[in-house]
Amino acid sequence: MRINFSAALAALLLTLCATAAAADEDGYDLWLRYRPLDRAAQANVQSQARSIVLPGASSPTTQAAVAELQRGLAGMLGKAPAPASRIADGALLLATPARLPELAAAASPLRAELATLGNEGYLLRQTRVQGHNVTLIAANSDIGLLYGAYAWLRDAGTGAKLEASSAPKLSLRLLNHWDNLDRTVERGYSGQSIWDWWALPDIKDQRYTDYARANASLGINGTVLNNVNSKPEVMTAPFIAKAAAVADVLRPYGIKVYLSARFSTPLELKETSTADPLSPEVRAWWQRKADEIYKAIPDFGGFLVKANSEGQPGPQDYHRTHADGANMLAAAVAPHKGIVMWRAFVYAPKGAHLADDRARQAYEEFKPLDGTFAANVLVQVKNGAIDFQPREPFHPLFGAMPKTPLMMEFQITKEYLGYSTDMAYLGTLFEETLESDTKTAAGAVANTLSGMAGVANIGSDRNWAGSQFDQSNWYAFGRMAWNPQAKARDIAVEWAALTFGPDKRVVPPIVDMMMLSRETVVNYMTPLGLHHIMGTSHHFGPAPWVDNLERPDWNPVYYHRASRDGIGFDRTTKGSNALEQYAPEIARQYADPKTTPQQYLLWFHHLPWDYAMPSGRTLWAELLTRYDQGLADARALHARWVALKPLIDARRYTEEEQRLTRQVNNAILWRDACIAYFQSVSGLALPPGVQAPAHPLDYYKSLSYPYAPGRG
Ligand code: BDP
């Protein structure tokens, strides 16, 4: 028998190729996968990178840049050029004015452009240098080169055109880890903390380097290592040494380390007799502590502080203001150029007088302090006035503190949006807040910011974020921290192409799913401006009936105020008047339910069940419609994913398919439980065509989740 070897070989190759195309991935590589490109793309990328040239001496940061380019090229093309010392045609040239005199020359057209890009910006250009056609990555500093290298790789991986130039709009772009010293993570749904405090400082996990690469690829330049609910031990020598070891790994990637400081630390360590911020003893203690930290971490970023909120100690314990507390710490780090990020997430400390409306409190406490904070203090404000809900109007402090640098605090981890099981792309949430017009001199919320912080969703899970799609939220946060005007959809396109490959059959449907996902969650959880009706403490699943917690403003009934007469929180002049904290134009517009955006309707108004909605339906019927829409869209997300099965590797396909199935069940649970409850309150019948909940209300009330992850 004659065997046709070439045919057999061809068949084998075909099988191998097909398998390779769909090779299983676990998600560890994030958006830095660098999988082989198609031929045309390979040729294009290869023509731009026949050699990699870095004039001048290398630094840890340029080494990281060159190593990443080599890694990327090896992955995308199958081989990577070695670094070369001579500029030649087709070189990928990394240069700063200090490294390449041509860039510093008065005649250089790039000189003026570079001058506008600051320390961290970069430009990518196809140009001629020393008589050769090169692809130039130029910046004013080595960190700019690293960012430029990542941008070039991003363009190569997505097939995008070379980005002309880019510089970050915000100077502080931070992750906030809510990680505890025992490796549990408050509101973490992706395993343990990546910081192995026990093993540090001797053992530095490879993950720390990969974490640095991923963050640098987005331009994130700072990280707070520990939970805002901090411990005094964080400020002791052993932990400072551990933080220093992490800082050493992150430094080449332009990422500074910060720590959350517990306000009463010196007192609790029994090294002072008080924690009063005006006490000389306390001030001297923090000054010495800052000196000690800077000795171990010369580029230490500074402190993040949660004070007088949810039982945490703070300056008000000594009848001092937030500014007194923040300025005391600011004085300690100022000689080292450190900063203090003081959180505005405050509501009455335990036992204290309860404000009529929790949504009012941060503004009431902070607005009067505008102009009294030290120059190196930033006030860090959550995106909304309650707490990381699926949807909130923007926080009234944005635009209201013109004399104080503000930071935005977004939550990347999905405490209130279905953990890491439900798909909810947060790019749209971030964009919605950042674009909101404050109707003050500042304009959009994005313009009021000096920095952005994201509560990280990163953990020890192999895929880092708990699910493949939750990686997109880390990604979107980083890209928007770099450019708060960036569009959620553009970012989704980029992420999907990098994560699943630049296949035209795959990217658009995935992007459509992402763009639909957050609104889906809003609809099946908290439509029409409802908020904080989640289960006690774990915040997973519906519990609109809860009314028995110690503090009224922990109870869902406090927020929805549903009764026989109607539903919603009246924040107009007839109610808490929280509206007065917004610019007059907004206050006027939102004072009338007719001119209030429907998405915020029940946030600002208490309305009768038969209130006529623009759709022609009653409010009651509209609410039911939204819950049904949420469920229908959850089903649609699942169906769209199933349709992509042939195009996604089996492992990632299955992981997400299971999650989307569970999401449909979560949506059913939310819809049914909320309808059962609100019906019990309204006493109204379900209109024809609306399906009755599967169980009686008591069934939903009986559900409990004692072992839900991530509790505080
Ligand atoms: C809430 C979380 C709680 C945090 C708190 C905060 O439930 O775990 O400690 O925010 O931001 O959303 O301080």
UniProtKB/TrEMBL annotation:
Name listed for the protein in its UniProt record: Xylan alpha-1,2-glucuronidase
EC assignment: 3.2.1.131
Family: Belongs to the glycosyl hydrolase 67 family.
This protein's record includes keyword Cell membrane: no
Segments forming domain Glycosyl hydrolase family 67 catalytic: 160-464
PANTHER family the record matches: ALPHA-GLUCURONIDASE A
All copies of domain Alpha glucuronidase N-terminal, residue ranges: 30-152
The keyword Coiled coil is assigned to this record: no
Signal peptide annotation: 1-22
Keywords: Carbohydrate metabolism, Glycosidase, Hydrolase, Polysaccharide degradation, Signal, Xylan degradation
A Pfam family that the UniProt record links to this protein: Glyco_hydro_67N
Reaction it catalyzes: Hydrolysis of (1->2)-alpha-D-(4-O-methyl)glucuronosyl links in the main chain of hardwood xylans
Family annotation (InterPro entries): A-glucoronidase_C_sf (IPR037054), GH (IPR017853), Glyco_hydro_67_aGlcAse (IPR011395), Glyco_hydro_67_aGlcAse_N (IPR005154), Glyco_hydro_67_C (IPR011099), Glyco_hydro_67_cat (IPR011100), Hex-like_dom2 (IPR029018)
Class of the enzyme per the UniProt entry, highest EC level: hydrolase
The protein's assembly and partners: Homodimer.
